[in-house]
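Worked example 4.2. Below are the chains of a multi-component assembly; read each line carefully before continuing.
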Amino acid sequence: MLSGNCVYEQDDRTLVRRCREGDRAAFVELVVRYQKPVYNAALRLLRQPEDARDVAQTTFLKAFEHLADYDPRFKFYSWIYRIAINEALSALSSRKSLAEVSGEEVDEAPGPEQRVQGEQLNRAIEDALMRIKPELRAVIVLRHFMHLSYQDMGEVLQVPEKTVKSRLHSARQLLRERLLHDGML
Amino acid sequence: MTDPRQLALIHAEIDGELDNEQRAELARCLLADPDTRALRDQFQRLSKALEAFEEAEPPASLQDSILAALPQLPPRRRSSSTPAWRYAALIAGIAVAGVLVFETVRGPGPSATDVAGTIASPGMPTVLNTASLANGPVSGHISLYRDRAGLGLELEVRASGPVDVRIAGEGHTLEVNGLGSPDRPGGAPTRVALPGFRNGETVELTFLMRGQQVGTATVRVPVGQ
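Applying the procedure described above to all two chains together yields the following structure tokens:
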């Protein structure tokens, strides 16, 4: 994925420039190019496919609407991933608020009885991910699922690389502890 | 308790960030301390398990729904004026049309006066979802949007006669009467505020002509919008 991003980078800027000039086909190309990683980032953060779909759609609509605000000195994918991560975190926050209002538990951690044989480790990791703070979950998603460098993660999250590393180490430590507790490591 | 320095080396190894000197340092630590070896193995297994996750395919409809919503949102340019005239014209059009909006007594919510008072709210809307109507006596386009005043629907309906629209959510029902009629040439869009509708809610629209159902559409309010 990382090498793919690098190959795309120059083309992305051209597409953005064409889009700003009113060429909608250029934006279609950006959607085709980035809908899969954006959807997957949202899915790993939210776990619910329907919510991930909503976040992906909103991400692209906001990107289109605010294309004039994009600074071409930075990578386009960092910018659109930032929108996606922020939208997903906002959706998570909203989901918790709705659950609090309705008095429902947020279904983020199905019990062991719901795990399917053969997918047990993946389920355990998904469960563990949903139990750590969203800001820590985000670094795991960016690093391990989207394969971004520390620098790119810093651009997406708008924090220094040092903070990225610190969050990544904390997130892995928490995941390790939870998986050990569940007997999965 | 593992030394923080050793822990940092283990994480750096996972991320491929070790130089030769650090690699040698980590090797010495692993040889000397079985606890550090066990810890490193656990992190390695965790990392491999994370990397093994397969990417999910986005829904086939995702791209279409994004592109369907795009015409509602021309990119803004700093150097040129925003299409505020479009919304001003829309508001004026709605005022002339005199569309009647009322809320039935089916569920809790604001009074009919409140609802009518929020039609064509000001501000630049962001389109959240869209749906189309085709292959029937009624055709057109529905956009769910949010602006400074909250959620709303923009209804662009074309038909041979007046169309009534029943808009239903969880405990809310609104009706808009007289869309698509000959005194609204070209299917001029109508905006309807949706007070009381919440994130994650499904908005169901039923289109009626002379009391008979002639079409339906559904749009969902995204979570977190």
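Take a moment to check your reading of the output against the notes. The two ends of chain B are 44 Å apart (CA to CA). The mean pLDDT of chain B is 76.
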